[in-house]
Design goal:
There is one protein chain. This protein is an alpha+beta fold. It has three domains: 87 residues, GIY-YIG endonuclease; 138 residues, no CATH class; 85 residues, no CATH class. Helix 4 packs across helix 8 and helix 7 runs antiparallel to helix 8. The chain starts with a strand and ends with a strand.
Length: 332
Amino acid sequence: MLYTITPGFHLTLPEKCGVYIYRDKDENIIYIGKAKNLKKRISTYFYQNKQHTAKTKRMVHAAHTVEVRYTGSELEALLLEARLIRRHLPLYNRALRNYKAYPFLVLRTDLPAPYVEVSRDMVHEGAMYFGPYHKTGWLDNAVDALHSWLKLRRCPGPLPSSSCLYADLGQCLAPCITADKNDIYDDQVKQARAILDGNPNMQQRLEVLRDEAAADLRFEEAARIQTLLNLATYNSRITRSIAHHHALVVSYDADVGCTGLIIVHGRLLHTLHASERTVDILRTMQQEANELYKKTVGTLAAPSVEEVDEMLIIASWLECRAQELDMYPLGP
């Protein structure tokens, strides 16, 4: 719905959730925002403007029209805002104009003798993805510590068949050369998976090993184990909300009604709406969500650069609204 900006126009806006798009007189998009209540949010631009920054005042002065797009939930508004900003790159939006890919850690289970690598945009079918990670400076050190401790292979590409520098230096079990070590290597890969999954038992084991190394004055080893512990601890948090998050998230608002968000692998796949929140409606939503989950789980490719940002938005929203939402896990 498009509104021309005239004195008092904002008083006619609906009190609904959604996204607003400001355009200048030449119809160029200059700013995109989201609001739980569009009327209240847009109205703030046109009164009490002494509190506005110089940039906001310039934007309001340049704005000629505002378009509003309604959404069924605040989360949908957040996601729509992010998509529109990426698509149009408005002059007065900074948050996503300098967009960058957040990295994942990838366990290359699609290859013989799996190993771990940092990836920002490569998609490997059959590999396991962990993340994404906001702060990236420590990831390379974490991968190096993981390989050093478990002696996983480090050589991407074709596997050597006769000699290997890492094997000669005792830094790799070299399952590609020594076939009788395959079972041992598989066990090491399982331990890597436990760290990347943030397994609580693995965290406890790392704490014991770290303390033992420090007590024996093996400080370099203790530091390496602490790096692995940091990785496991961080992943235990993001795993709950991103990497393996499958849930129907239900919210209720007197104006919007009952909204059900179907989230699989941290991605919003579908939104369900109902006017009321009854036991029968919740049961129907759960049935629809589980049917979609069964069709989708395990089939999603590694997330694209754009999807990573949306996964982060979803995870942050779920964490901030945890006390206000009803969450029903999907799957067995």
